[in-house]
Amino acid sequence: xxxxxxxxxxxxxxxxxxxxxxxxxxxxxxxxxxxxxxxxxxxxxxxxxxxxxxxxxxxxxxxxxxxxxxxxxxxxxxxxxxxxxxxxxxxxxxxxxxxxxxxxxxxxxxxxxxxxxxxxxxxxxxxxxxxxxxxxxxxxxxxxxxxxxxxxxxxxxxxxxxxxxxxxxxxxxxxxxxxxxxxxxxxxxxxxxxxxxxxxxxxxxxxxxxxxxxxxxxxxxxxxxxxxxxxx
Length: 232
Hints:
Blueprint: E1 4-7, E2 10-14, E3 19-24, E4 30-33, H1 41-50, E5 58-62, H2 68-71, H3 74-81, E6 84-88, H4 89-96, E7 105-106, H5 110-122, E8 134-136, E9 141-142, E10 148-152, E11 161-165, E12 170-172, E13 178-179, E14 183-184, E15 188-189, H6 192-202, E16 209-211, H7 222-230
């Protein structure tokens, strides 16, 4: 595992089965998007060091949703860095109780069923409990790194959110969509119809770079790809 530069001040960290991302905050610190599995802490620390930073340079952690492949290392990273955690209330309430799982069903098709089974086998149902510092809602703009807008995207989970960093024009999608064997819906959702409506709404926005929890980042003209895929 290493780090992949995908834009100015924007770095992808591929972990085993999920991606996390760093964004420079403009003041010498780092913003982390999602926190991987419980076993991901050391890899995230190594990635920070590869970027020439110390772990305590992580000042903000934005979390797309509660699942254990996105919140697994969150409590330990919070304890070691003092970073502020940002999450939608529905997800924050679960993580505060150490709960990570929500009900999911596979989407149509062989690939979705296969990916769903794999994720269900490796994603932990519980995580170390941790409190969220800032509860975010649809339309909020957090005034760091040039402004990070919150877009509530229910469907995968009720409180799933994606984050649009305005200055680099990068969107962090969590599990709202995937780019595995092409741009596609995520293999599993709690509510597939609602997830479809959410991603169509995202496709109406403008962004250059798309960053996925699962799959390869799209580095150029990403929103045009989304509009073609979802005919927004």
